[in-house]
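TICKET #2291
ISSUE: user wants both folds in one file
ATTACHMENT 1:
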Amino acid sequence: MDQIIHIHSSFSRNKFIAVGCDTYSSVEGSLGHSYATACFSLCDSKDSVVNGSCSGIGCCQTFIPKGVRDFNISVTSYNNHTQILDFNPCSYAFVVEDGMYNFSTLDLVNLQNKKEFPVVLDWSIRNKTCEEARMNITAYACKDNSACRDSDNPPGHRCYCLSGYKGNPYLSNGCQEIDECEDPSLNQCISTKNCLNTVEAINVTVQRVTVATEEKAEQVVLLKINYHCGQNLSSKRKEPTGQDVSKIAIFVCCNAGSSSCTSFSSNPYWLPKSVWEFNILRNHKIEVLNISVQGQLRISIEAAYDCYNEAGNITRRARSILSVPKFPLSYRQNKFTATGCDTSTLIQGKRAHTYATGCVSYCVKHEDVINGSCAGIGCCQTSIPKGVLNFRASVGSFSDHQNVWNFNPCSYAFVVEEKAYDFSVLDLADLRGVTKFPVVLDWAIGNETCSDAQKKPETYACEDNSICHDSDNGPGYRCNCSDGYSGNPYLANGCKDIDECAIPSLNLCTHGCKNTPGNYTCYCPKGYKGDGRKDGIGCTRIKKSHIGIAIGKCWHRRYSLACCKFLVYLVLKERKLIKLKEKFFRQNGGFMLKQKLCSPEGTSNATKLFTAEELKRATNNYDESTIIGKGGFGTKEHYQ
């Protein structure tokens, strides 16, 4: 039976992007109701634009909402590009598959003559859920060894092959079984011998030994120079030495078992010059939530808001402002976010140059909004550029919230740590009473690169078993513990060796594990051979001869009469077998063949005569899978 196919723009695989330095662009259309979202891109010189960055300086981007069936894109300019005409005469806007466009400063001229971009559409079967579709088994699209999943870009459903199968779930016998044993990346067996392919699963025939250990929590000390957490600094009122000032302090004490940190109230020269500026946060009464040794400083700042009454008059309004001259906003861990159904917001400030970006959030009714979605319907979001040391966020309305006042009287805008905020339709009323949000700042040591800092060992901050990384968000450098170590790289002996053997998830050993400085080695127990690694050949039991086993047993039993008789029997049987092989070798012209092969008249490509033991080893004990014509390709083994 023919199926009805529904097609929508993919919200998870497309982005709306605008390019230009004097650019405002919007995308609007329908998804059962009207929607609209937008972004701003501004810059005053080509030097302020960064290749690959689409955070509002030369390039901006935002998400596509769910369920979009059509869209109309418009792009305009604030000042007709008059101030930037020499390097950016045009603005561009387009929807493109995420990952298929990488912004370049060359795009500011003419988009490098690109006229078309790939866009992903989602399709689904009919307009029924899986549960509804199964009620009509003759029309049900999912075939054998497949399952049904409701479309996340409604309406309809889609089919997919079950785990352990691959292929086309819409065809009879379209989902074919995967032989996981043939592909080492699909199984956890030590070797193909130990793997048995089964329907929908893998059976591993080798037992594994798991060592359970109790993990130990370790207090990370975030202080250096000559202090200890909790020490009374007032008793050490002295002029700091050059050595004191040269060392890096993280200027807080964290209470054991608590994430709360408090700054020292000591004279600022007790801190090294590279971090004296931390006092700026205290002077501006900025709340510090946490400081990490990985180079992040978490603070709390207030949101901007714009509220109206039913008549459309402003009842209250505020901006969100932050200025931290030495601590740039983390462009990786923060997002600029706005909530509201009649909302236009702008964030602007200075890096090396002036920057500005923003987004638009629009919706008609409460039911249009989706929890967790920040794609322009009730909530919009954009990235933060690199190197931002200050910002001013403001928020406004198109229609004074008169059309949405009954469920959304205010617009809000704020910078927030990306993982710390999840949009809810409840935020449209009053942001659930939240007024402050966590923001991540990046900190680094001094203004030098690693290569320059390492030339001055008396001031170099990275201690033993650590490595140096140049900051990617402003000047300076940071230290990290080397691989195989953890702790505080700014403390003497602060990076401690990790015992990978004590934590099963950190090693790949099948049996024995030995910890080494910064690493570990695997080994096999007595009676086994191999490298002992899950990603290697593992461990296999060493085969012993029958005579050796018998001798061992006899020795253990102090040469009992029965044991000795049995040993003599085995020795005679083995000797008889050897003589029988020699007899057959002589009868079948073995010596003549050997003499012919060793003759100087033979060529350099003379055939080599292999013993039975060598043939057994070369053919993996005469494994039938190595026979040519029966699935094998033969074997080749070199002998000296």
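ATTACHMENT 2:
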Amino acid sequence: MRRRLGHHRQHGKQGGVGGRGLSLKLLIAVFVALLICTLSLLFSATITATDGSSAPSEINVEKLWESANSGGWRPSSSPRTDWPSPPKETNGYLRVRCNGGLNQQRSAICNAVLAARIMNATLVLPELDANSFWHDDSGFHGIYDVEHFIQSLRFDVRIVERIPEIRKNGKTKKIKAFQLRPPRDAPISWYTTYALKKMKEHGAIYLTPFSHRLAEEIDNPEYQRLRCRVNYHALIFKPDIMKLSESIVDKLRAHGHFMAIHLRFEMDMLAFAGCFDIFSPAEQKILKKYRMENFAKKTLVYKERRAIGKCPLTPEEVGLLLRAMGFRQFHQDIPSSCEELAANAQGLIGSAVDYMVCLLSDIFMPTYDGPSNFANNLLGHRLYYGFRTNIRPDRKGLAPVFIAREEGQTAGFEEAVRRVMLKTNFGGPHKRVSPESFYTNSWPECFCQMETQNPADKCPSENVMQILHSQLESENMDLEIYNQSDSIGARDSLYIGSFRFMLIGLKSYAPRLAGISEQTQMEPRSLHGDNLAWRALPFMLRPAGPKHASSCKRRGDERSAQSETW
């Protein structure tokens, strides 16, 4: 399995499942498998139920396809106070190695830019770890638009592609970066004292690993807005990735709205969460072995974990939840154009396409947004990208409802589900409360209001870019410093990778998702054979008929225009 939770593992453990055998075969099956599902959706526009009070509880499904209420807020990561351009002379060079998967690396890149700004350092283009699951060495050049990244951050930090050589006493000399291991969630003070001291001593430092190595909660809104500028404006995927993503979205939008569901029902997550009991003894043995080899030793009781919302929803529970909310009947339709991607879709680039399609979906639903970097980053990006609707199941609130149903108490099940879901946030602005990540919710730092009594929330002036340009020119900075190493124009060849949503037991659950209206008992999940070869883009749900296509197209165009500015 792809290990997106490497920071929880015991040090010294190897990344594989151990023993190879069955697990290796399952990994191979995952690499070659791809399923892109589009499910025609017939839904009732409004579901009404009584909850014992005089006021009815209802979920207007029609409105869920629209953006959430913004409350007058709009995304804005422009500086709102004095923000000097980076000076000509810096304190040295900062190298970082971003470990983990694509989305963990994305957060690390944001932190690297902020660390460089804090230390007045020249940032060397971040290194992307050869992912331990995909064994993908695409690197920064293979995933992101490097030229756009460097130029868009020119008001914030100096960036070079590699540490340049220096001439001393008539000889060319390389600067060797001093290697440091930053503490997890290190405070700013660590960078401005210890790390900066080493940088000045050696001329360059190399921070590795660099996943979760800078505290997320920082009491400086401008620093947080810099993170947003990196995450939502500077980190743009290569044109080939964007073109492929847009092609898939266009095909889905041709049939109307669509929903992307992130089913995090995978071996690594189940092992990490300790959700074993629903599997057979043989399958439990595999999961326990995986946990022992990859995570710290800890006694976990399934019933307790599920009761507090620590287990991912099963595919069956996802279907029951959607049915209760008003999404009624589904049928499976696999576009031939998407089937063609199966042969060439692998690695980090496949993850990038996943990311973009989920970002552009009308509704995004993660079934487990705990330590999932993919889900958390997407939720934050969709919030910034115009308060796009998200369905975030309250697993703790839903647990007793699902348990009661399993025990035969089916009366009032759907009404109980709706009552729980009506208490959740569907994508609008809301206060960030721990343990919610800044990358999941950057409100209010990266948002503003045109009409407000609070100066801190007021949108910056429209000429903020002109001001920053003027500051840059006044520093007499030569923009070619950004290209003093190799030419940015040289691009790696595109390598399309497989999509990332491997689902345990999905094969036995796909019919259930296709016939959600049927009331059936829970089927056994399987870790074996072809069942592990089912993957999704993820599931794409859309209402039947093309009548929504034109409005979706306009909606997407408007949002794209909004996202182009700070």
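RESOLUTION: both attachments delivered.
EXTRA DETAIL ON ATTACHMENT 2: The first strand starts at residue 38 and ends at 43.
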